[in-house]
Amino acid sequence: MLAFLVKRTANAALVMLTVAFMAFMIFRFVGDPVEMMLNEQATQAERAELRERLGLNDGFAMQFVRFVTNALQGDFGISYRNQQDVMKLIGERFPATFELVIVATILSLVVGIPLGVITAIHRDSWLSDTLQMTSIVGVSLPSFVVGIVLILIFSITLGVLPAFGRGDVVQLGWWSTGVLTPSGRAALVLPAISLSLFQITLVMRLVRAEMLEVLRTDFIKFARARGLPARLVNFRHALRNCLMPVITMTGMQIGNLIAFALITETVFQWPGMGMLFIQAVTFVDIPVMAAYLVLVSFIFVAINTVVDITYAVVDPRLREDAAR
Amino acid sequence: MKKFAAVACAVATLAAAPLVATHANTLKWGANRDIGSLDPYSYGDSFTINVLNHVYEGLVRYDRDLKIEPALATSWEVMADGVTWRFKLRQGVKFHNGNPFTADDVVASLIRVSHETSPLKGNLPAYASSKVVDDHTVDIVLNGTYPLLLNDLTNIHIFDKEWLVANNAELPTDIGKKVEGYATYNANGTGPFKVESRQPDAKTVFVVNPDWWDTPQHNLTRIELNPITSAATRVAALLSGEINFTNEAPVQDLPRLAASPSVKVLERTDLRTIMLGFNRRAELVDGGKNPLNDLRVRTAMYQAINMDQIQKRVMRGKSRNAGALVAPEIPGYAPELDERLPFDADKAKALLAEAGYPEGFEFVFNCMQGGYVNEEEICQAIAAMWSRVGLKPKLDIAPRAVQTPKRTGGKTDVYTIGWATLPMLDAYSPLIQILHTKEGTAGVFNWGDWSYPELDKLVQAAGKELDTPKRLALETQALKIAKDEIILLPLHQQPMAWAVGNDVKEMPQFPDNKPRLWYTKM
User: Fold this and answer.
1) What pLDDT digit, counting tens, does each position of A104-153 carry?
2) CATH superfamily assigned to domain A89-323
3) I need a labelling partner for A253 at 20 to 30 A (CA). Which of A282, B15, B343, B436 fits?
């Protein structure tokens, strides 16, 4: 078991290092931050001098080693554009993204699971067919289109929900939250729906497939034969048995949602990490880009590693395969 | 005279007051991006400086007609030595924290902005030193005779020295040292508005400064700056009334905005002249002999472009075709230089043949994605027109941050360049920055590496001439050389569009595309 743990952790570290390396490769092609930082009247000498001070003249290997050494100590430097500590900057934005992702996840479960159950029970009804069709549309529509359509309906035509921003936020220590104020809750609705739409269809299809499997098993037949009410059979016996994969998938999708929130955040001007990253790309703010990529890949790697280890704890066969 | 105007304005405000005095006047401004920081000296970014100009002020400022008028300084004179400027400062001005404004503050601010780690150092190129004469008099010493100090000073915001010292912010924030600065999060100026709160990328709130030294010509009580990056969302927010002002109304949505009863669209042409520059080294990027050094070739490329068609089709009639390198509003502009060479494809072909390129030649045409208004479409149209006369342009389109290193590094043959003469607002700006030979601090944007000693001499003379009419005559002469030699090929002044909600009564639109909300009435 110990060997397995060491191996998994080493794997994770290697993935992180590769991501950092690739991110660094990309930075060579995003452009020159100095051109964006100085204004039109700066002289060539001033540009060269700033480049020197930022260490942009050093070789690639040198810059990469310095970045990894600093990153290991949690130091990602100072944003070129905002002139703020990068970790603090990301820390300020993380609550916004996290709240959005959590609300979207809850929404996807609350809506997706019942829909999945309904389509599984009433397999060939028109309702189930319509839902199935709609879910295909949900999967295939790009999320910025969904966002714009939602804004068009709820902000412009009906005028009931705000088109952009996070509303008023309340500061709880370092965590800023929008769920405690009416305007914050209103602002959360459209971005959460647009982010969760893909997730809802995913959950619905997964639940449906699992339900169809379980409904065919003997113990359901016996439960029916015993004369238990259909509601009880479907929701207590059948649904409970298909929730395991749904929960696993939902957990693993959180990393995805954080990464995909980038598009939703841009459409709704949601002041989260994705917005920060997009701004950083526009202004070639390398410290922010580097920290964001490393952080997001860390979330991915951490979730996957934890899931792998949990599986190994549950299922000894995986453990032995890996140790061999 | 100024006082009279101020009184007249105050009377006008009083007359209009009963209509609007009932509720607070909040301008909800949806910009396409956020300011970088609350520190105007943090980043060489004109939008940040423009927004912070509502909080901080300079010694002088632009009035409604973009003429320089006194602000924190009331008068000034050039001393006998020609390089020392003496400024008399306004009495009774207070910073937002209540500190009085004195000569010490001016000197501390000038030291801060001209420090070697300041990204704004280039905004004050002639500055050598400054000293306090008395509490309300300052001497600024320059490194040579220089006529445009006042233009430069419009953008140099004055900080409170005591506040800088107390918060250890006397020097600009140095990102190289990885230490944050106090002025990044806090502001204390003398301007018409005070910062109430700021959440980066979300909202920055300004409230009116009741103790402002000047008589307000606006009636705003509050400005909320909301950055909204996505153009579609910005339009939606404007239509739904969540914002009532944007300084970046997307060109493609203008008809829709204009059709809405609750929105007014404000349009005009910008000061920014869009031009093409040429590689003038001995060789093209691909290593062949450079035909662009031949004036006949440049003339052919000029006459092959049908600007009227671009104006009608690509710019939807909203641009202004230009023959001169600066817009009509810019000092140094001369109407006789604004004639374009006529479009004549046959003449272009003949000129190419005469120059020895009847079959044309291949070259790289460098354009930016999302750079200037409709830039990609303009470049595609021009490339097609050039192909029609036999030239073989290879279009290279990528984002600004990717293209700039290629341009500065001489890795392009023909490129787009837009110049609004900001922050100077004078023809001297493109002359010294683009057209002058690349040497010392001059010709930073001379990406094609050309050199016209005759033009350089005129530009240098203009840079030392304190008599304005004489200086402008020198600049016009230099611009004529640039036109005759087609150093740059002018295309047009691009359009700009703002939009306001119906509740905004008065919003003067400035051709430098900078909102000055202290002239706004609701």
Assistant:
1) 999 999 999 999 888 888 888 888 888 888 888 877 888 888 899 999 99
2) MetI-like (1.10.3720.10)
3) A282
Among B176, B181, B401, the residue with its CB nearest the CB of A53 is B176
For A208, residues 6+ apart whose C-beta sits below 8 A from its C-beta are: A116, A117, A119, A120
**Distance, CA of B405 to CA of B409 (rounded, Å):** 6
The answer to whether the beta carbons of residues B428 and B148 sit under 8 Å apart is yes
Pick the range with the lowest mean pLDDT from A231-240, B47-56, B361-370: A231-240
Calculate mean pLDDT across residues B163-177: 85
Whether residue B261 lies within 8 A of chain A, CB to CB, comes out as no
Determine the distance in angstroms separating the CA of B312 from the nearest CA of chain A, rounded to an integer: 30
ipTM of the complex: 0.78
pTM: predicted TM-score of the whole model, two decimal places: 0.82
User: Chain A to chain B, count of Cβ pairs less than 8 Å apart?
Assistant: 161
Q: What is the DSSP letter of A233?
A: I
Q: Where are the domain boundaries for CATH 1.10.3720.10 in chain A?
A: 89-323
- What is the pLDDT, as a whole number, of residue A23? 81
Q: Which residues are paired to B73 by β-bridges?
A: B89
Token match 């569009």: residue?
A: B497
A41/B242 touch (CB, cutoff 8 Å), yes or no: no
**CA angle in degrees (0–180, nearest 5) for B259-B263-B265:** 80
Q: Using pLDDT thresholds of 50, 70 and 90, give the confidence band for residue A318.
A: low
Instruction: Note the pLDDT tens digit of each residue in B240-256.
Output: 999 999 998 987 788 88
Chain B CB contacts of A271 under 8 Å are 199-202
What is the rounded distance in angstroms from the CA atom of residue A150 to the CA atom of residue A190?
7
Question: In this structure, are residues B85 and B78 in contact, taking their beta carbons and an 8 Å threshold?
Answer: yes
Contact A82 B229 (CB under 8 A): no
- Name the residue among B517, B430, B442 with its Cα closest to residue B482: B430
Q: Do B242 and A164 touch (CB under 8 A)?
A: yes
What is the C-alpha separation between B319 and B373, in angstroms, rounded?
10
Task: Give the pLDDT mean for B111-121.
Answer: 85
- CB atoms B226 and A164 under 8 Å: yes
Q: Report the interhelical angle of B453-462 vs B468-484 (nearest 10°).
A: 160
Structure tokens at A176: 């800023």
Which residues in B lie closer than 8 A to residue A46 (C-beta atoms)? Answer: 121-122
Residue B335 pLDDT > 80:
yes
Q: For residues A46 and B118, give the distance between their C-alpha atoms in angstroms, rounded to a whole number.
A: 10
What sign does the CA torsion over A123, A127, A130, A131 have?
negative
Q: Which of B134, B182, B188 is nearest to B159 (CA)?
A: B188
Q: Which range is least confidently modeled, B227-231, B354-358, B471-475?
A: B227-231
Q: What is the rounded CA–CA span in Å between residue A322 and residue B496?
A: 63
- Which residues, numbered 386 to 415 in chain B, qualify as contacts with chain A under a Cβ-Cβ cut-off of 8 Å? 399-402, 404-405, 408
Indicate yes or no: CB of A43 within 8 angstroms of CB of B200.
Answer: no
DSSP state of B291: G
Taking an 8 Å cut-off on Cβ atoms, the answer to whether B232 and A148 are in contact is yes
Query: Hey, is B102 helix, strand or coil?
Result: coil
**Across the interface, do B36 and A159 touch by the CB < 8 Å criterion?**
no
Which residues lie across from B211 on neighbouring strands?
Answer: none
Best CA proximity match to B286, nearest among B349, B387, B361 = B361
